[in-house]
Amino acid sequence: MTHARGERSALCDLFDRLGPDAPTLCTGWTTYDLAAHLVLRERRPDAMGGIAIKPLAGYTASVQNRIKARHPYPELVGLVRKPAGVYSLLPFLDEAVNALELFVHHEDVRRAQPSWEPRELGDDLDRLIWKRVSSGARLMLRRSPVGIVLHRLGGGVALGGARQGPKVEVTGTASELLMFCFGRQGHARVELTGEPHAVDQVRNAILGV
């Protein structure tokens, strides 16, 4: 089983266990909303633009709401559980495009619940996450007003954020650095070191793709 399939299955099991009204780390979204987002992302490419482009966000939101209205929660989770389109035919593409997205959204649900703890990941998934973090750090951290130096526990350094001025060092495992870089700073188990004002700026920066 690929990592994308494993995260997809585990996330859907968690969706089933928690029900449609559980909180997530996605501001304003319940588990029902997040499930609808994932269905939209894979099955409505015409509406994906609003995920990243603000002028299109209204259309994306309206499609997502229609998906929710059309599908009862258990049915929607069933749609998430099955890769759609080319992802169902090409597992390697599903792995390349969806592994980290599904990992982060799985954690969005896990970490919004009380008493969560980081998972212990296999070496292969840990290496995959770090490979993507190290290659994508510039993109994910581009809006940081100060420089960021990512230090992976066990080895590895990546740079992002502003190229001039103070820098903040962020230390953690590959998965915690991924959550940090995806804008979940308040729910990432990392250590931040630097000038207090710079650290505060990094904590409050809008990060992510």
UniProtKB/TrEMBL annotation:
Q: Which InterPro entries match?
A: CHP03085, DinB/YfiT-like, Maleyloyr_isom
Domain of life of the source: Bacteria
> What is this protein's name?
TIGR03085 family metal-binding protein
In which organism is this protein found? Nonomuraea purpurea
Taxonomic classification: Bacteria, Bacillati, Actinomycetota, Actinomycetes, Streptosporangiales
